[in-house]
Specification:
Elements: H1 2-30, E1 37-41, H2 48-61, E2 66-70, H3 77-84, E3 92-96, E4 108-118, E5 120-124, E6 139-143, H4 147-156, E7 165-169, H5 171-179, E8 185-188, H6 199-203, E9 207-209, H7 215-221, E10 226-230, E11 246-258, H8 263-277, H9 301-309, H10 313-317, H11 320-373, H12 379-396, H13 404-433
Parallel strand pairs: 1-2, 1-3, 6-7, 6-8
Antiparallel strand pairs: 3-11, 4-11, 5-8, 5-9, 10-11
Amino acid sequence: MRAWFDSVSLRILCAIICVVAAVWIALWYFIPAPPHEITIAAGIKNGAFSAIAEHYRERLAREHIKLNIRIADNAGAANLKLLQDPTSGVSAAFLFGGTSDSKSSPDILSLGRISYAPMWMFYRGAETISRLTELKGKRIAIPSGAVRLVEQMLTAHGIAPANSTILVKLGPAVTKALYDGEADFAILPPQDVHSPIMQPLWLDPQLRLMNLAQAETLARLFPNLNHLVLTQGAVDLEKNIPPADVNLIATTNVVVVRKDLHPELIYLLAKTMQEEHSGATIFNRAGEFPTQTDPEFPMAEEAVDYYRNGPSFLQRYLPFWMINYAKRVAAILVTAIAVIIPLFTYGPKLYNWLLQTQLKRLYRRLRVVEDKMLGDLTASQVAALQGDVDSISRAARILPLRHSDMFFQLIMHVDLVRARLASRSMAAHGERAA
C-alpha cells in the first residue's frame, strides 16, 4: 500500500509541475516581457522629425529604454517602407498626413497626431501669387516626402507635368533649388518657423511666402489638410515678420507603430508623446496634441486609454521595468487562487475516497483468502494464504493515525482470518503426522 501512496504522490507532484509549467508558458506567451529598445524611422538627418526623435530618446532613457533613430531619404515614403518591412527592425515611424492609410498599410496603428505640418510655399519674384492655379508654366520644387498629397493638390488646380515643370527633391534640396534659381516656386518640407532652414527665407527680400487665398476651401476638400493662419509678427515681433496674416495649409504629423509592438512600449511612447507635444505653439493651443483620433489609421487602444485616463494604477506607482513582472505575479496569484480554493473544497473528499477505495481493495483480497479457506487445503497452501494475510496487514499499517478506526476494524478482520488459518494449519500438520 505504501507503494500505492507513493505512486499517487508522484502523480500529484507531476500534475503540479505540469500546471506550473503551463502557467509559466501561458504567462510567457500572453504577458511577454517588453524589449529594452525600440527603433524609430525619423526621415532625413537634421530634419524636423530627427530633432523630435532626439527629445524622445532623452525621455525614454529615463525609463531605461534605448531609442534607436533610423535616418531615411525622406520622412514620407522612406519611413513608411522601413516600417512595413518586418526585417528592418523598425517598429515606429514619423509620417506626414496623407502618406498612407489603413487600406494601403493594414499592419500599422496610430499613436495620434502630434503637431501641424505647415506647407511653406515660397516663390521668387515681385508679382503676388495667391492661388496654385497661377503656377502653370512655372518650375515647381516639391519635397519627396509629400509627393502623393502635393501632386493630388496640384492636379486639382490643373497643374501637371504637361504644362509645368515639377521637380521632386529631397528635403534641403528643395530650398537650394529655390535659392539657386532652379525653381520659381517651392513647397518646403514642414519645419518650425525658427528652424535654421527657415531663418534665411524670412530675411531674403527676393523671396515671398504665399498667402493662399483658397486655404479654407482646400482644407474642406482634402481631409488631410488643415487651414492655418500665421499671424502678423509671429516669426519676429520686432521686425514684424510676417507683416500681415498669412493663410496656410498644413497636414499633421503622426507617429505610427507596427501592430506587433509590445503594449507596454506603446504606453511608454504615448506617455512620451504627451509630455513632448501637449504644450501650445503658434498654431495650436495647449492640450490639442497628441490627438485621440486619426483620420487615416486605427488608433492603438493603449494610447487612447492613456490620453483619456492617464497612467494606470501600476504605471502610476511602479517603474516601467517592474510593471510586466507585477502583471505576471498578479496572474500567478489569480491562478493559484483558482486552483487552491477547489483544492481545499474537494481535496478532503478526494482523499477520503482514495482511502475508501484502497480499503475496499484490501477487503477484496481478504475475501479471496476466506473463499479459498472453504476448500481443502494443504499445508503449503495454508502457508501461502498466511503470507497473503500478513501482506494485507502490512499494507493496512500505513493508514494515517486520524483514521485509526478504519485501521482497527480492518486489523480485527485480519486477525480473525489469521486465527482461522492457524487452526487450518494445525489440522493440516496433524493429518500429515497421522
